[in-house]
């Protein structure tokens, strides 16, 4: 059993919270929080380190005692202390930590005085007015709790990030593939189209005749199941512990292409394709393409498209946003792929709020096959994230020179992520900005200005000739923060006029520029920087997510500047 760092972190974090609810010594509690934080930021897998007999105390924040506990987790899958704590009090108490106004001490009081152990019981108690009567609480704090509970319920109904669903999709695919008699397995639906978030997973499989029952029986006992919603011969549905619903359908071999097409969607795309079929006198459904009673296509997706006179359309484009018309004319773009990428243009080291050193980041980027990596530390305004002053930027550049002198066939670009101030000026003096290889400029503060003001602020910042790339243009955080109110089309036009590049930030909860605007930019000839905004070595791997987002935005290799060799990249940057 190989336990992942995230699982180790979760156990440590839970122990810390449970100890705190129990009123333990704050120093003890802090040691667990600290260890959890260290584990989270480690780029190596702890299982490996333990297998190699490495000393975990080499990591700052992990003492001898804690190292022993981490070993215990790796070796036994849990911690005896954790097991003891959860025998003593219900683990569901920790759910209450999601209520911002409830800390461990208050949770402990609510638990001990009212016997409340779950969020539902908390809601009941608040509705009945019992919370307000506890010492340290009142009507106002009770209402506050009710409001928070509403918000938590809303969040639970929200869609899961594609990247959070991916490990489950892959694990299920692998699991199903291993069941006896199974032939093909594919995850379809919004997941296959690479949507930023998914509502549920739709899996299709084919198997040898007579093995259907075996497959379905195996499916409903998959390891992480919370609930089995349906268990049938050709269709079953489960809910995983993380809340994600998964549907599995077994389809006939001859229908696999038609079913894959149907269940990949989107619904709007399907309807448009079906309409083309109807116009030709065909009937299209999840079993095939039919002329009268005769099946004329459906074994592969390609055959479905060809039957209605279309070339194959990549799943990422299937949103009925012009792909059908473009396919009719055989003018579909050749979408960018991972191997086209030659470098990353947005990354932090621990000099600002990242985890790696310059050299570690360079090595990790080189290992991905890259030629260059721009180190874009935050600027002074973003003090919370270790932003650099002008003087510190000069040191930053010298440090990069020093590392570059040691690197062969690879170059760190001297860059900064410069804050766009509220008045549209940049957070660093032109004299220092001019010395950089490039600057990514982003809005971090005052994201709630009125639309006109916000748009003007950004365009005004672009007037500065040292503004090369607009970073995470809308500042949205999917599921947690709305995009800024801006006139993006106007901003993209302004970028065009000034030869400014626009970023597509690959962080899974950003994917910012949103896909529809990627297409707008590409149509206008505005170049895109596909960047990970990496805060650790591992984070550089998020380029995979960025590629999917870029493909959903119809982007080709040509549209993206970091597909170019370094010399050409320099010329494409505004200062080049
Ligand atoms: P999601 O799950 O909300 O992220 O989005 P999808 O696209 O995965 O939607 P889902 O799971 O409801 O259905 C999977 C696919 O099945 C969908 O993309 C298209 C197809 N589909 C579902 N319902 C219909 C329908 O009423 N008509 C047609 N033509 N296709 C449908
Ligand atoms: Ca779905
Ligand atoms: Ca579904
Ligand atoms: Zn950044």
Largest sheet: spatial strand order: 11-12-13-14-15-16-17
Cα-atom Rg, whole angstroms? Answer: 27 Å
Helical percentage: 40-55%
CATH class of the largest domain: Alpha Beta
The small-molecule ligands in this entry are: 2'-deoxyguanosine-5'-triphosphate, calcium ion, zinc ion
- Write the CATH fold name of the largest domain: TIM Barrel
Overall number of domains = 4
Mean pLDDT: 95
- CATH 2nd-level architecture of the largest domain: Alpha-Beta Barrel
Quick one: overall form? globular
Low-confidence stretches: none
Q: Describe the main β-sheet briefly.
A: 7 strands, parallel
Measure the end-to-end span: 52 Å
Report strand %: 5-15%
Name of the CATH homologous superfamily of the largest domain: Metal-dependent hydrolases
User: Count the strands?
Assistant: 17
Number of helices: 23
Structural class: alpha/beta
Could you explain the architecture of this structure?
This protein is of the alpha/beta class and 576 residues long. It folds into four domains: 5-154, Orthogonal Bundle (DNA polymerase, domain 1), CATH 1.10.150; 160-250, Beta Polymerase, domain 2 (2-Layer Sandwich); 255-328, Beta Polymerase, domain 3; 338-573, Alpha-Beta Barrel (TIM Barrel). Helices cover 43% and strands 14% of the residues. It contains 23 helices and 17 strands. It has a seven-stranded parallel beta sheet. It has a five-stranded mixed beta sheet with strand order 2-4-7-6-5, with helices on both faces. A hairpin with a 3-residue loop joins strand 5 (225-231) and strand 6. Helix 7 (119-127) packs antiparallel against helix 8 (139-157) and helix 19 packs parallel to helix 20 (488-498). The model has no long low-confidence stretch (mean pLDDT 95). The chain binds 2'-deoxyguanosine-5'-triphosphate, calcium ion (CA) (2 copies) and zinc ion (ZN). The site of one calcium ion has 6 residues, from helix 10 and strand 4.
């Amino acid at each position: 059993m190989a336990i992942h760092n995230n699982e180790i972190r979760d156990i440590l974090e839970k122990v810390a919270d449970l100890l705190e609810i129990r009123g333990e010594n704050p120093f003890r509690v802090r040691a667990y929080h600290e260890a959890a934080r260290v584990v989270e930021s480690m780029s190596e897998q702890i299982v490996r380190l333990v297998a190699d007999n490495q000393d975990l105390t080499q990591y700052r924040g992990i003492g001898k005692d804690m190292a022993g506990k981490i070993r215990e987790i790796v070796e036994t899958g849990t911690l005896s202390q954790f097991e003891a704590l959860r025998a003593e009090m219900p683990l569901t108490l920790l759910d209450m930590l999601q209520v911002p106004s409830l800390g461990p001490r208050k949770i402990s009081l609510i638990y001990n005085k009212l016997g409340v152990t779950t969020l539902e019981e908390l809601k009941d108690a608040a509705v009945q007015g019992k919370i307000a009567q506890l010492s340290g609480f009142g009507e106002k704090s009770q209402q506050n709790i009710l409001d928070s509970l509403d918000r938590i319920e809303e969040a639970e109904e929200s869609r899961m990030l594609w990247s959070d669903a991916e490990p489950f999709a892959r694990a299920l695919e692998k699991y199903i593939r291993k069941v006896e008699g199974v032939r093909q397995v594919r995850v379809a639906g919004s997941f296959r189209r690479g949507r930023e978030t998914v509502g549920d997973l739709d899996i299709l499989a084919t198997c040898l005749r007579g093995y259907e029952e075996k497959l379905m029986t195996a499916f409903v006992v998959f390891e992480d199941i919370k609930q089995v919603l349906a268990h049938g011969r050709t269709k079953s549905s489960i809910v995983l512990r993380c809340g994600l619903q998964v549907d599995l359908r077994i389809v006939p071999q001859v229908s696999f292409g038609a079913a894959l097409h149907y269940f990949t969607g989107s619904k709007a795309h399907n309807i448009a394709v079906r309409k083309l079929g109807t116009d030709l006198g065909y009937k299209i459904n999840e079993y095939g393409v039919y002329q009268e009673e005769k099946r004329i296509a459906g074994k592969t997706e390609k055959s479905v498209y060809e039957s209605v006179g279309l070339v194959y359309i990549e799943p990422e484009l299937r949103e009925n946003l012009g792909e059908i018309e473009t396919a009719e004319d055989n003018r579909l773009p050749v979408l960018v792929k991972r191997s086209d990428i030659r470098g990353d243009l947005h990354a932090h080291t621990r000099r600002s709020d990242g985890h790696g050193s310059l050299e570690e980041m360079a090595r990790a980027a080189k290992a991905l096959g890259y030629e260059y990596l721009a180190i874009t530390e935050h600027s002074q305004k973003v003090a919370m994230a270790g932003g650099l002053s002008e003087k510190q930027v000069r040191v930053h550049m010298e440090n990069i020179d020093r590392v570059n002198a040691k690197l062969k066939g690879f170059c760190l670009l001297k860059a900064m992520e410069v804050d766009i101030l509220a008045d549209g000026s940049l957070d660093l003096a032109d004299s220092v900005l001019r010395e950089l290889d490039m600057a990514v400029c982003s809005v971090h503060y005052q994201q709630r200005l009125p639309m006109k003001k916000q748009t003007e602020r950004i365009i005004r910042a672009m007037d500065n000739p040292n503004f090369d790339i607009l970073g995470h243009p809308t500042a949205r955080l999917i599921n947690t923060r709305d995009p800024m109110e801006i006139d993006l089309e106007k901003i993209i036009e302004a970028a065009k006029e000034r030869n400014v590049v626009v970023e597509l930030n690959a962080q899974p909860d950003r994917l910012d520029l949103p896909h529809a605007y990627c297409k707008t930019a590409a149509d206008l000839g505005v170049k895109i920087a596909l960047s990970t905004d990496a805060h650790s070595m591992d984070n550089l791997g998020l380029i995979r997510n960025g590629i999917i987002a870029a493909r959903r935005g119809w982007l080709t290799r040509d549209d993206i500047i970091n597909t170019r060799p370094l010399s050409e990249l320099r010329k494409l940057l505004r200062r080049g």
